[in-house]
Amino acid sequence: MDSYRGARTAMIVGAGVAGLTAAAALAGAGWQVEIAELNPSRATSGWGLCLTGPALRALAGLGLADACLTEGYGMGVITHLDVDGEPVGQARPPRLLGARRPAMAGIARPVLHRILHAEAEQRGVVVHQGMTVTAVDQDGGLVHVQLSDGTVRQVALLVGADGIRSTTRSLLGLETSPDYHGQMVWRALVPRPQWATGIHQFAGRTDTAGLVPISVSQAYVFLTENGVEQSVLPEAELAPRLKQLLEAFPGRVAEIRPLVSGSESVVRRPVLTAFLEGAWNRGNAVVIGDAAHAPAPHMASGAALAIEDGLVLAEELGRHRSVGAGIEAFVRRRRQRCRTLVETSVTIAGLERVQRHREAYPLMDAGHRLMAEPA
Fold this sequence. Notes:
Layout (H helix, E strand, L loop, with lengths): L8 E5 L3 H12 L3 E6 L10 E4 L1 H9 L3 H7 L1 E3 L2 E4 L5 E5 L12 E5 H14 L3 E4 L3 E7 L2 E6 L4 E4 L1 E4 L6 H5 L7 E13 L7 E5 L4 E6 L4 E9 L8 H12 L6 H9 L4 E10 L5 E2 L2 E3 L5 E2 L7 H18 L3 H31 L3 H16 L3
Parallel strand pairs: 1-2, 1-12, 2-8, 5-14, 12-19
Antiparallel strand pairs: 3-7, 4-7, 5-6, 9-10, 10-11, 13-16, 13-17, 14-15, 15-16, 17-20, 18-19
C-alpha cells in the first residue's frame, strides 16, 4: 500500500476533543505535530459528557478507553420517563468493547481533556496555549501558517479543529453558519444519587431533563429549555432559574432539584448545529469535528464523531501517497455518516420542542445503531 512519504509536519488549530485526538493519532503515526489553542489556560467549560460506544471504541484505538472508564462512570442503559415520571422504556446501546464492558461512560470534561492532553504530549505533540492561526497560504505541497504571535510555520498538513465557529474554516474560505433551534441547554454538576446507575431522560410538558453519572460520586443534570430566544443570563441567575425550571417535573427530578442550589456552577448554552456542504478542505488544509459537522446534543454523539475524525484522518493519510489524496479519502469516508447524525439530531430537537417524545426515542436508537457501524 502506498503512503505519504514527505515531511510529516502538521499544525492543528484547537485543543478540544477533535484536535487532541487528531494530534495523538498523527503523532502515533510518526508526524511532528503542533497545536495552537486560543485559550491561554487548559480550563474547559461545561461539566460532563457521555462517551457512547463508538467514542469508547475510537478511544480504544488510542489505548485510552480503559483510562476513561476508570475515571468516568460506565453504563449500559438509558431509561426514558414520561411526563408523569413513569418509565416508558429503556434503550440498551450495543457494547462495542465486548459483552463484559460498559456500553458507554459518563465523564467530566476536565478529566477527558486531561487524559487526551497527557496522551498527545506523551507522543511528542507540542501544545501552544493562548495562540491561534491568523493567516493561511499554500504553495505546492506546503501550507504556510501565520500564528498570532507573529511566527510562521511551513507544514504539510493544517487541521482546523476549532469548533462550530471555526476561524480556520473562514480563513480557508469554507463558509457555513450555525443554526439555532429554539432551545437552550442547561447543565449543573450534582452529587450522584444512588439510583442513578445509567442515563435517565425525563419528558416534560414543556421542557426535557435528564441525569448522567460521570463518576461514582458525581453526575450532571441537564435540561433542554424549549421555545426560547438565544440569550445570555447573568451567572447569579443561572442556578435559581434552573431550579425553577425543574419544578415542573415530577418523580425523581424532585430529588435532584435541591442539589442544583449547591452546584458550584451552572452552564447554559444554545442548541446549535452546522454541516459544511461541499468541500471540507482547501488543498492540504482540512476542518474536522464541529468545524465541519456539529450535531445537536440530543444524540450525545458529538464527541464520538470528533474522536473518530482524528483517527480516520490519520488512517487515511497513512494509506495514500499524497496528503491531498489522504484528505479526500477522509472526507469521502466521513461525510454521509456525519450528515446523517446531524440531520437526525435536528429532527429529534424538533420533536422535543413539540413534546413528541415517543417519536424521538426510536430515532435516538436508530442513531446509536448507525454509530455502532464501523467508522
